[in-house]
């Protein structure tokens, strides 16, 4: 079994507790790595190091162009090691090698893009309404950033945060999920090779209470950027509010994937399957509510079932596997519970409905692709995020009905609209309350385009050039070039 160390102040170190916990491979359900069990003591050392790196020394005095060059170099190193890092992710989270290799090949773009943006952060000269002043703005980094990531795509979701934070001039302490820490511990070594000074990037591993909480509450942490469940996000937001910290939160979803009768149904069937069964449904933007127009309901369901039945399950490390295991044992149990809940609520089971007993699934945490029909949007499986291979199909009559059902959710992350009517595509994309609307497509993301949630799906945006602002604060500077203080007792 491989034993990992944490990375603090430019050094690989053992945890203060001198304890390690096991990380499991969801395909074999066996432990494969030992992860350092961090505590508040490690958090404090890491945050102090990040604060020192932010305040003095080479990082703080570097030009923005030099910071950008380091990010570029890091991107090159990730590209070099993409296969190795992808394999570690698969071993830890059970997602398909085809997907993780694709992610790792794509991740360098975040570091190139935000590296390029580093020296284009500019303030403005403001032509004031008051005579005798020269007024301008500076965009300054907020300080030490806590980067807290979930288990589904640790390095990709980390890149969405780390790249803009470093480009802005911040320093970071990363806390990966306790279920999937290995890839981050391996990845962080590349920062040293790229030439980042010690303390700029640190990783403390461990559990939410023992590491996440002290990190959020540490007085020298000025910003928390988090991806994970809405329950944890709410807790972090409350803690952060006590100390007026900056926060961005990417939380869950219950995204509607809406198919109109006028859509290209072949494309829409593919989109519905990829929306929920790709990544075994373990993605925040899963199209977990499939809304079908009445007139095509039966024929669409038939085609959907025909395609879903062909899913090849098994070893996620095999290039041709299509549905892998669920990442964690608690998540496996949670998905099975939701299947029972759906049955109890009277939804009609159309496919799957339990653990997989296919021989190629071995002892892994596999659940059959599961589809429920005739779901009412008020049922719990239509309102609560399952985060697994479970699709709920809901009927709608017309456009107004589709909008009403789609928006009848406390979440608002992704959404899909399948139609061949361009005017309808525009209308729907205006009316849906969600951060992303994909028309005749699903689950597309880019480092260039904003990503984030409406409603309970989150606060702030990642990706796209404005994401860098999440790590900056604006200073307004007033130079008196001749203004006269007429009456010192009156504010002008
Ligand atoms: P989680 O909220 O349990 O954990 C996320 C991270 O927060 C982990 O690193 C965890 O250790 C940490 N954490 C837990 N308690 C904490 C605390 N009190 N203070 C600080 N940190 C704490 O989520 P998860 O189980 O890792 O991930 C699955 C969930 O994440 C899903 O339910 C899904 O909705 C959500 N998710 C959202 C997105 C998105 O982009 N919106 C992406 C992936 C996952």
Description:
The protein is of the alpha/beta class. The protein folds into 2 domains: 2-251 and 457-476, Aldehyde Dehydrogenase, Chain A, domain 1 (3-Layer(aba) Sandwich); 256-439, Aldehyde Dehydrogenase, Chain A, domain 2. It has helices at residues 40-55, 57-61, 64-80, 82-93, 97-106, 108-117, 154-168, 182-187, 189-194, 208-217, 230-242, 265-277, 297-308, 329-345, 380-383, 399-407, 422-431, and strands at 2-3, 6-8, 11-13, 20-25, 30-36, 125-126, 133-141, 144-148, 171-175, 201-203, 221-227, 246-250, 256-259, 289-293, 348-351, 370-373, 390-396, 411-412, 416-418, 438-439, 454-455, 458-459, 472-480. A 7-stranded mixed β-sheet has the order 15-16-17-14-13-19-20, sandwiched between helices. A 6-stranded mixed β-sheet has the order 10-9-8-11-12-22, with helices on both faces. Strands 1-5-4 form a 3-stranded mixed β-sheet, with helices on one face. Helix 6 (108-117) runs parallel beside helix 7 (154-168) and helix 12 crosses helix 13. The longest helix is centred in the N-terminal third of the chain and has 17 residues, at 64-80. The chain is globular. The mean pLDDT is 97. The structure holds nicotinamide-adenine-dinucleotide (NAD).
């Amino acid at each position: 079994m491989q034993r990992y160390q944490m990375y603090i102040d430019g050094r690989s170190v053992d945890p203060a507790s001198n304890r390690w916990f096991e990380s499991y491979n969801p395909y074999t359900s066996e432990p494969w790595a030992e992860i350092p069990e961090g505590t508040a003591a490690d958090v404090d050392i890491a945050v102090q190091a990040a604060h020192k790196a932010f305040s003095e020394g080479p990082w703080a005095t570097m030009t923005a162009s030099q910071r950008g060059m380091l990010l570029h170099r890091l991107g090159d190193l990730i590209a070099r090691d993409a296969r190795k890092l992808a394999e570690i992710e698969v071993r830890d989270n059970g997602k398909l090698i085809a997907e993780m290799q694709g992610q790792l090949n794509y991740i360098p773009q975040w570091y190139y893009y935000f590296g390029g943006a580093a020296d284009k952060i500019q303030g403005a000269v403001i032509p004031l309404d008051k005579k005798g002043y020269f007024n301008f703005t500076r965009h300054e980094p907020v300080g030490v950033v806590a980067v807290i990531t979930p288990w589904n795509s640790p390095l990709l979701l980390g890149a969405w945060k780390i790249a803009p934070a470093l480009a802005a001039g911040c320093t970071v302490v990363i806390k990966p999920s306790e279920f999937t820490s290995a890839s981050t511990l391996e990845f962080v070594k590349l920062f040293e090779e790229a030439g980042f000074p010690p303390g700029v990037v640190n990783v403390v591993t461990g559990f939410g209470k023992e590491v996440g909480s002290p990190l959020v509450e540490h007085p020298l942490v000025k910003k928390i950027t988090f991806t994970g469940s809405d329950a944890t996000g709410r807790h972090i937001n409350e803690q952060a509010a006590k100390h007026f910290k900056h926060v961005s939160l990417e939380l869950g979803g219950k995204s509607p994937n809406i198919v109109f009768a006028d859509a290209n149904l072949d494309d829409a069937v593919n989109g519905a399957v990829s929306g929920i069964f790709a990544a075994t449904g373990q993605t925040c933007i899963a199209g977990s509510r499939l809304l079908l127009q009445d007139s095509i309901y039966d024929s669409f369901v038939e085609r959907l079932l025909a395609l879903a039945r062909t899913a090849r399950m098994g070893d996620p490390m095999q290039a041709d596997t299509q549905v892998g295991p669920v990442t964690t044992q608690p998540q496996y149990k949670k998905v099975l519970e939701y299947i029972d809940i759906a049955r109890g609520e009277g939804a009609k089971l159309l496919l799957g409905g339990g653990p997989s007993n296919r021989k190629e699934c071995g002892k892994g945490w596999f659940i059959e692709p599961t589809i429920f029909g005739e779901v009412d949007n008020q049922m719990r499986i239509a309102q609560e995020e399952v985060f697994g291979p479970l699709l709920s199909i809901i009927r709608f009559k017309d456009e107004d009905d589709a909008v009403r059902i789609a928006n009848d959710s406390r979440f608002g992350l992704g959404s899909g609209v399948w139609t061949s009517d361009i005017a309808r595509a525009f209308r729907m994309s205006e009316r849906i309350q969600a951060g992303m609307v994909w028309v005749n497509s699903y689950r597309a993301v880019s480092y260039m385009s904003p990503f984030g949630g409406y409603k309970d799906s989150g606060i702030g945006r990642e990706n796209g050039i404005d994401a860098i602002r999440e790590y900056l604060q604006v200073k307004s500077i007033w130079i008196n070039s001749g203004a006269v203080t007429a009456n010192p007792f009156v504010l002008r």
